Automatic annotation (TrEMBL), chain B:
Assigned keywords, A-Z: Cell shape, Coiled coil
A single cellular component GO annotation: plasma membrane
Origin superkingdom: Bacteria
Coiled-coil regions listed in the entry: 80-117
Organism: Thalassobaculum fulvum
GO BP term, example: regulation of cell shape
Protein's UniProt keywords contain Coiled coil: yes
Keyword Magnesium: no
Region listing for Disordered, in residue ranges: 285-308
Family: Belongs to the MreC family.
PANTHER family according to UniProt: CELL SHAPE-DETERMINING PROTEIN MREC
Domain Rod shape-determining protein MreC beta-barrel core: from-to ranges: 133-272
InterPro entries in the cross-refs: Cell/Rod_1 (IPR042177), Cell/Rod_MreC_2 (IPR042175), MreC (IPR007221), MreC_beta-barrel_core (IPR055342)
Protein's UniProt name: Cell shape-determining protein MreC
Length: 169, 308
């Protein structure tokens, strides 16, 4: 079966949506929005995206592309180069390996999975940040950021589900 | 589709599965390698960082506008409501300031005369670069802000960044069209300061919290809550006398300083160029900076202010 050019472009755009969305979230996480105290606890939007697409459409989230998005976020947010990239790799790897546990199950289970996996990723980031700074970082900001991230996950995932259903298909 | 043995697919298939299996490990190793490279302060990595950030600066600039414009609209509506009262207040203010202007003129003349008498070495002229904050990078471990002015606008590393309230931080990274400012609350920020009342020198060290600490105070220093902290100018990093904040609490070992800067409303930042890195700037016959003189357009360059 041959496809017309417009069909092919259409499919290409649909398939590029997840990673483009993650890229957009990486940029958005650096934009100042003027909410008091927001900067310190900007939720890890990209980690939510990495988890969601790793579970539901791992074929549309090539690790290398995700890695590049992570590096880009590191540059924008001025974290040590490679740190966000590594945490996204951790989330992606664990989510892909455990995805059968979440597929076709209630959403709460996926949420719980994200809570566990993101905890590990956040811990790795905290550890690396401490090692790179050559002194232990105060854990409070990392813990707050983690809590905000896992609390907001259902809201962001709701948007992902809509995009998944109507755009990516 | 039937696959012949020895065809391209049968060769490519194992290679592809090999890649997908080890891609992950490779990327993890890549991330670690990047971190090590970044830690080693290699020029190439620095160039890569600023290059990518430069490309993205316009995108961030566009994205950071909606949030700012919403806040602006709300503020504009409120101002419209209070127009009459505001006008009255300004008229009173104006009268008061005109008296001050008179006093200042007299003092300036007196000052000039006395300086001529005592052969005082004048402070260098100061140049301003005003820029908009396009990204206030946060997260749990970094306190920095990105602005929409870079080397093209004359930004250099080490310039002091101030808001209307006080010192914000210093420029640590300069690209063509953007620059990054390390905030005084960042873990890596250490600024030589003095306690204004007692002139005790100290270092203001950020620790990623909202309240940086005062360290390396002299043994006999007597700091009280409410003391103003200003830059000392030691080390030639920042010009002396820039206000930073007030001491809020003194526990054993930890003196916390509350910065004057309102971090939540950090929209515009002014970079002060005192030419402190030893580079003599061509003064081009500019008159010395005058308190009361009309603002020269070439002294303060305004960027990104648009309709204001």
């Amino acid at each position: 079966m041959r496809m017309t050019a417009s069909q092919r472009i259409d499919i290409w755009f649909r398939q590029a949506t997840p990673i483009a969305l993650t890229l957009l979230l990486a940029i958005l996480s650096a934009v100042p929005i003027g909410v008091p105290g927001y900067t310190a606890v900007v939720p890890a939007y990209t980690a939510m995206a990495a988890f969601y697409w790793a579970v539901f459409r791992p074929d549309l989230q090539p690790p290398f592309a995700l890695f590049l998005v992570g590096v880009l976020q590191d540059i924008l947010v001025a974290t040590p180069l490679g740190m966000t990239a590594l945490s996204l790799m951790v989330v992606h790897g664990l989510a892909v390996s455990q995805r059968r546990a979440f597929l076709g199950k209630p959403f709460v289970l996926a949420w719980f999975g994200f809570v566990l996996i993101q905890a590990l990723a956040a811990f790795v980031v905290w550890l690396l940040a401490s090692i790179l700074a050559l002194r232990p970082m105060g854990p409070e900001p990392a813990v707050f950021q983690y809590l905000v991230t896992v609390t907001l996950f259902p809201v962001v995932a709701w948007a992902f589900v809509r995009i998944h259903r109507y755009v990516v298909r | 589709m039937a696959r012949r043995p020895g065809s391209f697919t049968s060769v490519a298939q194992p290679v592809r599965s090999f890649w997908s299996r080890f891609a992950f490990a490779l990327l993890l190793a890549g991330a670690f390698a990047l971190m090590l490279l970044g830690k080693a302060d290699i020029l190439l990595v620095e160039r890569f960082r600023t290059g990518v950030a430069d490309v993205l600066a316009p995108v961030l600039e566009v994205l950071s506008r909606p949030a700012a414009s919403v806040a602006d609209t709300v503020a504009a509506a409120r101002r419209l409501r209070d127009l009459r009262a505001e006008n009255e207040r300004l008229r009173v203010d104006n009268e008061r300031l005109e008296r001050w202007q008179h006093v200042a003129r007299r003092l300036e003349a007196e000052n000039k005369a006395l300086r001529a008498l005592t052969n005082f070495v004048p402070e260098p002229n100061v140049a301003f670069i005003t820029a908009r904050v396009i990204a206030d990078a946060g997260g749990a471990f970094v306190r920095s802000a990105m602005i929409n002015a870079g080397a093209e606008q004359g930004v250099r590393r080490g310039l002091a960044a101030v808001s209307g309230d006080g010192l914000v931080g210093g420029v640590v990274e300069v690209g063509g069209r953007h620059a990054r400012i390390l905030l005084i609350t960042d873990l890596n920020s250490q600024i030589p300061v003095v306690v204004e009342r007692t002139r005790d020198p100290a270092v203001l060290a950020g620790d990623n919290t909202r309240l940086p600490r005062l360290v390396y105070l002299p043994q006999n220093a007597q700091v009280l809550a409410g003391d103003r902290i200003v830059t000392s100018g030691h080390g030639g990093v920042f010009p002396p006398g820039l206000p930073i904040g007030v001491v809020t609490s003194i526990d054993e070992g930890a003196i916390k300083v509350m910065p004057y800067v309102d971090w939540n409303r950090l929209e515009y930042i002014r970079l002060l160029d005192y030419g402190l890195d030893g580079v003599v700037k061509p003064s081009g016959g500019q008159p010395p900076f005058s308190v009361m003189g009309p603002e020269r357009s070439d002294q303060g360059r305004l960027l990104g202010l648009g309709a204001r």
